[in-house]
Amino acid sequence: MSILKKDPISLMKPEVVAMKQQAIFAFNARAKSMDHVINMTIGEPNFPTPEHVKEAAIRAINDNETHYTVPEGNHQVLRAVSGYLKKKYDLNYDPESQILTTGGVTEGVFSAFNAILQPGDEVLIPSPSFTIYGPDAKFNKATPIYLDTSKTNFKVLPEDLRSVLDAHKKIKIFMFNYPSNPTGVSYSEDELRALADVLKEYDVFVLSDEIYSELVYNGKHVSFPKLLPDQTILLNGLSKSHAMTGWRFGIVCGPKDIIAQINKIHELATTSISSISQAAALEAYANGLDDPIAMREKYQERRDVLYEGLKKIGFNCPVPDGAFYLFAKIPENLNQDDVQLANDILDNECLAILPGSFFGVGGEGYLRLSYAVSMEDIKGCLAKLGDYVKLHSQAAV
C-alpha cells in the first residue's frame, strides 16, 4: 500500500507530465502492429553499417576496450572527428577543447538546451521541423517560437528571420536544421550567408543540426559555423551518413568556453558514451570518408522514382536537396486532414506515411514519406497510394 498522501504524478515535474508521447513513434508502433505494411515513416537507413566499421567495433570488444572513457570522448576519436570536419567542410575545431561526443544528436540538443536555456527564454524554430526541438525547449521552461516556412518553399528568408528576432526579444537559440527533416530542403552558401549576416546582429546562439550533411544531392554542403563560428554550435554524427543509427554516436562542436558548459550537462546525462561506439566512430571518421557516396547515390535514385510517381498521382512537393524525405502536399480532391488521411491510408492500403502536422506549424495538409527504404517498397508505396487516390478522391471532404 502506498504511503504517499498525494497522487505520485502530482509530485512529478509539471513540464514532463504535460509532455505527450512523440506522435511519430506512436503512429509507427501502430503500423508495426499490423501485418504486411509498407512502412515509409521512420528515417532509418536500410543499409548496413559499413563492414570495416563493424570490424573495428568487434576488435575493440575482443581487446577489452569496454570501460569508461572521459566524458568528452576518447581523444583519439576527437582528433579523428576534427580531421574529418576539416577535410569535409573546412572547419577548424580543436579536438582537445571544442568537440564533445554525445549519444546521438538527440542528446546533443538536450544537453545544449539544458546548458543554455533559462525559464522565460524563447527558442526560434523554423517549422515544419523535427519533433524534439519544441518539447526540449518546454522541458527547460522556455517557449518555442515557430516560424512557418510553408509559404516560402520551406526555407527561412533573412527578412523573416529579422522580423521574428525583432518581435521576440527573449529568443536565446535559433534552432536550425538543414538538410531538413521533414522537407529535405537545404540552402546554398549565399542563402546561408544572408542568414548569418542577420544573426550576427543579435545575442543568439545558433544550434545547427546538420546530421544529413553527407546526404546532399546537388552541390556541396556548407556548414553554418564556417560562416558564423562564434555563435554557432554544430550538431552532427554518424547515424545517417554511415547508417549507424543504433550506435548512438553524435558530436557537438563550438567555441571552447561554450563546449565546456555543455559538457557539464553531458556528464550528468551519460558520464560518457559507449566505448564500443567510439571505436566504431574512430574507424568511420578516419577511414570512411567515402562510405556515404554509394548510399547517397541510391537515395537519389529512390528520390527521383518516388517524386515522379507522386507527381503522376497528384501530389506536389519540393524536390529534396538532401536527407531522404519527401514532404508531399495532399491533393485537393482528398481529405485535407492529414492525420485522418494517413490513418485511413494505413487501414485501407497497409501503407504507413506520416501526417505532416506531426512536424508542427506549416505541416498541416502534407504527408512525409521516407525513401530510406528499398526500391521495391517505393514502387509498392506508389501502387498502393495510386489505388487509394482512385478509390477515394470523389469522396473527399
TrEMBL record:
A single GO BP: amino acid metabolic process
Q: Which UniProt keywords apply?
A: Aminotransferase, Pyridoxal phosphate, Transferase
Q: Which SUPFAM superfamilies match?
A: PLP-dependent transferases
The prosthetic group or cofactor this protein requires is:
pyridoxal 5'-phosphate
InterPro entries per UniProt: Aminotransferase_I/II_large, AspAT/PAT-like, PyrdxlP-dep_Trfase, PyrdxlP-dep_Trfase_major, PyrdxlP-dep_Trfase_small
Question: Where are the bilayer-spanning segments?
Answer: none
What residues does the Aminotransferase class I/classII large domain cover? Answer: 36-382
Single GO molecular-function term? pyridoxal phosphate binding
Family membership: Belongs to the class-I pyridoxal-phosphate-dependent aminotransferase family.
Stated name of the protein: Aspartate transaminase
